Amino acid sequence: MQRPVLLAALTGFVLMLGLGVLFPVLPFLTRDLQIPDASVGWLLAALPAASFVASPFWGRFSSQYGRRAAIVIGLLGYALGFGLFGLGQSFGQLLAARVLGGLISAAVLPALFAYVADVSSDERRSAAMGLLGAGIGLGVTFGPLLGLLTWKWLGLRAPYFVSAGIGVLNALAVSIGLPESTTPESRAQPLTRSFAELALPLAPFLLCGFLTQTARIAVDSTVGFFAQDALHATPEGVGMLLFAMGLAGALVQGGLLRRFSGRVSDGALFSVGAAIMALGLFCFGFAASWTGFTIAGLCVAIGFSLLSPTLNALLSRAAEASQGEAQGLNGSATAFSRVVAPLLFTSGLWPHTGAAGTYGVAALLCVAALGVALARFRSPVAA
Predict the structure, then answer these.
(1) Most buried one in 22, 97, 226, 266, CB count within 10 A?
(2) How much is the pTM?
């Protein structure tokens, strides 16, 4: 795999490593500040909501001024948001830090995905997207562990300052070591397609991304409740399952996809992944043992890891010369799913329907995405 893709994957890993620091420590910080637990959901939703608004702008910015510039600005904004969050003394200050960080850090992921699309061939694009996805997945997997260790060694607010430092160092590394993927000629080209004109041909891909991402977050947002209710699990048990899911997903994206890339169509790989993920979600709703629980979780992780990079590859081909704008729209769809999913599953379905209803709805979202794929993702083997 070529060096620029590896550098992009490393950037994604470090980005998500710092982002994952937030989750294990946040409830303790908010209680220390006497912020009601019900308000924590707003803090979690603030960053993706801000990213939903800002991602299309940053995607276009990366086409006009370069992918590297967008990534560096986004990482510095990410560092600023986390630094201010670590200094926050009230709910309003914490919320403002999350919104500000989300508005600026939204530049990073669309530019990274557009960068990988720029530097990879059509035949190897799904493999390149898989490597980037593996880096992001490993960052998500190890980020909470970094947060716990930093908290234990340095104190309650230290993880947020560590994340801010990670953002600054990542921005410095990108500015020095990541070669620009666009050319002065391509950046000088006038933008001839509006977001509305671009969104119509990309709608099936954006819809599938929203549906499958929302279904995936159903597990992250409710699996702790399910494990306690059905299996009397400890936090360590839940953490080990999520770690295994993250590791399995990274192995699929970073390894298995490279064997399939160019041999099996991305549309077929997406469909297989959606089917496996739907099966895992369905099984989650009826798991009654650690064995069933683990098998269901691994199916969800493997299915999502098959469909996510192949969907990005399909979207990038459909976008043609509008990679930045397309990935900006994709970033908005993904961010919107991170706003909707906790409200739908954690606050809406779980208290009223339990595991069967919650994971049944999530499985149906994957089935709907599979239906769209079968109808619209028709491509030759190498596409």
Answers:
(1) 266
(2) 0.79
